[in-house]
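Internal tracking record. Fields below are filled automatically when a chain is submitted to the structure queue. Please do not edit lines marked as system-generated. If the sequence contains nonstandard residues, flag them in the REMARKS field before resubmitting.
Queue: standard
Priority: normal
Entity type: single polypeptide chain
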Amino acid sequence: MYTVPDQAGKRVIVTGANSGTGKEAARRLADAGAHVIMAVRTVAKGEQARAEILAGHPRARLEVRRIDLADLASVREFSDGLLADGSPIDVLINNAGVMAPPTRMTTADGFELQFGSNFLGPFALTVRLLPLVLAAPAPRVVTMSSGVVSYGRIRFDDLQWEHRYRPNLAYAQSKLADLMMSLRLASVAVERDWDLTSAAAHPGFTRTNLQTAGASLGRDKPKRTVFNSMRFLPSQEVGPGTEPLLYAATSPSAVSGGYYGPGGSFGLVGSTTFVRPPRRARDAAAAARLWAEAERLAGVHLPAAAARS
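SYSTEM-GENERATED OUTPUT FOLLOWS
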């Protein structure tokens, strides 16, 4: 098991911290001494998760704040609250996501739900918080991707899946976009001489409610998903599944531009290892184009405080 190094004095944001890998990351980071901001869509669920963590770790420093990554106004409100506080952010962990709703759904801003909440929301959050992130001594931005990026495509001609929506392919696009964002941010940091580590991770086949929650959206009963039919594949509990994310966020050996995931069978389980991103994720021209389009759609740009070189 990966041991999180001492995080005393660090301020960490974890999105989607009320369940799954987000909750596990919040627990282990707080146990290592970090002040963790649990960024959640439903405050009541966040407070319940906080209470459960505190029951086993009474000294944990946990704070629940609301953010809905499917609503850019909520992202702005959350960011403005932190900017008003003015305290540096040592680690921003973009963990929250939704997987494969069976029918095309949209965010509050009219974007396809997965592209909007898995990518555009975290993108806007990252850009808005960069001044606080860069104010920390050795900051990191860590973004959760997925093994499905191996078959992901960025459909620049139909990013919002307005034609022939395919749940799993839309999910793969959103997670490929996350990985490209992480790699592009690492490149921008080098160009601008920022002391910033931007890394990505994927959990392999980790058993959480992610596979069922998204597939049940808009339905009265849970839907059987493609992942239900893949139970013959090796899978793992949330503890080991969170370790690539924790490694990217805390390990002294993690590098900017790194991508980390399980090193066992088919990349689905096992100890954390460096993963070579697929060729599409390493397409610098496509990443720059995606970044520019994300800025336009989300209405954010690198702030003046972060635009130094």
